[in-house]
## 1
Amino acid sequence: MANQSQFGFQDATSPIMEELVEFHDHALMVALAICSLVLYLLALMLAEKLSSTTVDAQEVELIWTILPAIVLILLALPSLQILYMMDEIDEPDMTLKAIGHQWYWTYEYTDFKDLSFDSYMIPTAELPLGHFRLLEVDHRVVVPMESPIRIIVTAGDVLHSWAIPSLGVKTDAIPGRLNQTSFITSRPGIFYGQCSEICGANHSYMPIVVESTPLTHFEHWSSLLSSQSL
């Protein structure tokens, strides 16, 4: 959960988000090294008197052509690796379907019979004490911890986007199209997100809440919800 004075990412709760945070730090270190070198050269040029040098111009051109290429390779290789990891969906334990509407989400657990519900934001006047304003919902998405989850995202009216920052997940919900992604929650907890695509007047009032629980708790929750729907 983010706070007001936070400058960095939320705590990673999935392997993909951990990789994204590490790549972010790696890219910042490369950018810091480049900025430090440029500032040093600028200060050197201002402090020293310009004069002729014995260094051949071709050697200088060779250096400032090869060095940027090496830097780009150092940034591209881990970036491509993470992109392939984010697109990889290999034998998920469960499939979840999220349908965006104006302005709520519908969830369907396709591996279970008659297990679906609508998720609305809880109004501020009805919000229980200690819960987060504009982020809490009446029905949370409950998933088993440390299990590969495939989520299929679509929309029933306009463009939406299903996003959970701490999981490293952001998938557009497009009417008439199915987009899919996957995630694994590495620890139990409650993770918050919001629709990340401007979808109308109440765009900021359709939050997303994912609750990660041990498998035994998830089985109890799913059986209880199925019996209530019957």
## 2
Amino acid sequence: MIFLLLLYNCFLFLSLLPSARSSALTTAIAANERLCFYVDADKAGEKIGFYFAVQSGGSFDIDFDVKDPNEKVILDGKSERQGDYVLTANTVGEYSFCFENDMSTLTVKLVDFDIMVESEPRREAPAKPGQVADHTSALEESTFRLNSLLLNIKRTQKYFHTRENRGFSLVRSTQNRLFWYMVLESLGIVGMAVLQVYILQTFFTKTGRRYKV
């Protein structure tokens, strides 16, 4: 009997957990390019989580906008490096999430983003409140607290992943600049040496005027 009660409690809390449809992607956006991604909201009131971070390219910034099924802009930003938003789908239909690399003429931006549609089912009151609720309230609270902690850990991992990619991109860019600086410096030194040898050689080999005495 106790085993059946525990099994029922586990099934109840698994059904109470929010169901989510997510899409985690990484895409490259060329200069003057606009890319859009779409998700469907099946019913009004659903929560849409939207996260993005520019991993490499230029100043690590991008323009973005979010539109509802009626083509109304509900969220936008200019030259943003990263963002983490939660939207409420008040209208059923297709929502668009667009990135635009319009400020760059040559630089390609690498963007990591995550779009998640989450719907939380309503909690139904148990048939016998005095019986089931007493056994499940503590487990229910622990379950939702654990879910919140896991989401915080996921956001922290994304943050450090972004910092790592940006740091690697910065180091690689600095290495390329130092390499070409050393190449130009070496060419300048070689050119100065050749020029000095040529000038000294002209001093000793150039014939001057001859005069008879």
## 3
Amino acid sequence: MSPTLASAPGSCCFTGVKHTGTPVGRVEDLGGIPTYISDPPAATQKVILFLADVWSPLYLNNKLIQDYFASCGYIVLGPDYFFGDSVPNHDGPDRQAWIDSSRKPAIDAFPAWLDAVKEKYGRENTKYCAVGYCFGAPFVMDLCSDGSVVAGALAHPAFLDEDHFEKLDGPLLLSCAEEDHTFPLASRRRAEDIMVARKSTYHFQVFSGVKHGFAVRCDLAIDTQRWAKEESARGIVSWFDRFTV
């Protein structure tokens, strides 16, 4: 088996601060998966696939992030591959069992969803990007390995091994916390070593003073955390802009 670089979600994936705001997107069925859809101010052929953490794309914080990406000129699509049964529904020991049982249904449902997305939004001229938070990271790595997207981004990833980086074939941004039990420093450096050896196109953001989950559930009342969260999102947009011109 390929050595693990980013492990399964842990205790700090289950905590955080709920933000405030009014989402502007809507939920529609795409390929059998409820999907949060946030539209940009003007018509575009640029799409971000938003592969959420264990809180799902329908969690308020994630809706607001998707709306931000949309405001920057992208159609944003967030599949709820938990089918309404995300981590807020689970407490205590049940949470780990839920994570273990939720992966296969999500993985199995994803190809039909992706096919439905490309049927609706275009296969030839549309430029797709993908961002994955924690649980969503391996979906992004697979999309970046088979040419399905023009660029990918990860924020505090989970469920990654060396093979994901050995197979990487597209541009990848990694938005990382200085302190991350799931993707620690040694793993981050090993991932970089692999990408350097393969001459991959990549970029790291590494933020001090924050932990795993900062890009979604940080405390916005703390300046360091707020800036890191907002700069992570800005950096992801800038990265995608580079490859969708």
